[in-house]
Design brief:
Oligomer: single chain
CATH topology: TIM Barrel
CATH superfamily: Glycoside hydrolase/deacetylase
Strand content: 5-15%
Mean pLDDT: 94
Order of helices and strands: HEHEHEHHEHEHHEEHEHHHEH
Helix content: 40-55%
Shape: globular
Number of domains: 1
Structural class: alpha/beta
Distance between the termini: 27 Å
Length: about 300
C-alpha cells in the first residue's frame, strides 16, 4: 500500500499513523444528534457527517450553528436501508429519476440504487444535499458516501468533482485490485483501479485505510475499539463509528442499536480517550484536509 502524499503536506512522515475519528449517520435519528452533541463536548472525535434527507437533519444543522467548531460533512445519501424508517430524495419526486423504489423511497441497497438511478439525477440529488446543508448554516468540511453508493464507476468522477466544486475533500479509499474485489467489484475492478489512480494524480484526497466498528458485536466495545486503533497501520486512516444514545426511537429503528449505543459509550469512556492520547496516533479532522485543499 502506498503512503498517502497528503500526509507530507500536513507535516507527517511515512511512519506516522494519522487518523480521522469519524461519527457517521448524524441526523438519522434524534438519538444520533444527541450522541454527536455529547461526543463533541468530550473533545475526542474529529469528524462527523450528516444525512440531509433524514428527519432529524434540521436538528443536526441546529447543533452545528450552536457549536460552530463541529467538523461536519455531508453523508451523501442515495439509499435507505431501514424497514421501519424510510426517506426519499430531496431534489425530485419524478419516478423517471430512478432514485425511488416502488414505494416512493430510496432503494434499500447500493446495488439497486446504482442499477436504477439515472446518473444525472443522482448527481443532482447529491448536489442538492450539499446545498441544503450549506443553506442550513453548516460549514461543510467534506463529503462522503452512505453505504458506499457513490463509490461506483458511474458516479465516482462526479462525486469527486462535487468536492472540487465546493472546495471540500470527497472521502475516497485507496484500494488495490484485490481490495476492490473484496468490496464487491467484479469486472469493474480494473476500471475502478484506473479511475482511482487518475484521481490521485489529479490531487484528490485518498485514504490509505478505512476501518469501521462492527454493527453486530456490541460486547466489550472499549476493548474492541482499543484493539482496532492499535491495529491501524502507518498512513492516513478513516475510523468510522455510528454513535447513538439508547432510546426507544433507536431501538425501534433496527437491531443494531446496541452497537451504536456502545460506540457512543466507548468514546465517552476515559479508557478509550486515554488510550488515544497514549498510543501515538495523530488525530486530525476533515477540516484539516479541507484547509489543505483550499490552499
Amino acid at each position: 500500500m502506498n503512503f498517502s502524499p497528503l500526509l507530507n503536506h500536513l507535516g507527517f512522515d511515512q511512519n506516522d499513523r494519522a487518523v480521522i475519528i469519524h461519527t457517521d449517520d448524524i441526523g438519522v435519528s434524534a438519538a444520533s444528534v444527541a450522541a454527536a452533541r455529547e461526543l463533541w463536548g468530550a473533545g475526542i472525535i474529529s469528524s462527523s457527517a450528516t444525512m440531509v434527507p433524514c428527519t432529524w437533519f434540521p436538528a443536526a444543522a441546529a447543533l452545528c450553528r450552536e457549536i460552530p467548531h463541529i467538523d461536519m460533512g455531508v453523508h451523501l445519501t442515495l439509499t435507505c436501508e431501514w424497514s421501519s424508517m424510510r426517506w426519499g430524495p430531496i431534489s425530485t419526486r419524478d419516478p423517471r429519476s430512478g432514485l425511488m423504489d416502488s414505494e416512493g423511497y430510496m432503494y434499500r441497497t447500493s446495488r439497486d440504487a446504482q442499477a436504477h438511478a439515472d446518473p444525472a439525477a443522482a448527481i443532482a440529488e447529491m448536489e442538492a444535499q450539499i446545498r441544503t446543508a450549506l443553506d442550513a448554516g453548516i460549514d461543510v468540511t467534506h463529503i462522503d458516501t452512505h453505504m458506499g453508493t457513490s463509490f461506483h464507476p458511474t458516479l465516482l468522477p462526479a462525486y469527486v468533482e462535487l468536492g472540487s466544486k465546493y472546495k471540500i475533500p470527497a472521502m475516497v479509499p485507496r484500494l488495490d485490485e484485490n481490495g476492490l474485489r473484496r468490496w464487491g467489484f467484479g469486472d469493474e475492478a480494473v476500471q475502478m483501479l484506473r479511475m482511482l489512480a487518475e484521481l490521485e494524480e489529479d490531487g484528490a484526497v485518498l485514504f490509505d485505510h478505512i476501518v469501521g466498528m462492527p454493527l453486530d458485536k456490541p460486547e466489550n466495545r472499549v476493548e474492541q475499539v482499543c484493539a482496532a486503533l492499535d491495529s491501524l497501520p502507518s498512513g492516513l486512516s478513516y475510523f468510522i463509528i455510528h454513535p447513538q444514545h439508547d432510546t426507544p426511537e433507536a431501538r425501534a429503528m433496527g437491531r443494531d442499536y446496541p452497537s451504536r449505543a456502545a460506540d457512543c459509550a466507548a468514546f465517552m469512556d476515559e479508557r478509550v480517550r486515554g488510550h488515544i492520547r497514549n498510543t501515538g496516533l495523530k488525530v486530525i479532522g476533515m477540516r484539516d484536509l479541507m484547509n489543505m485543499v483550499r490552499e
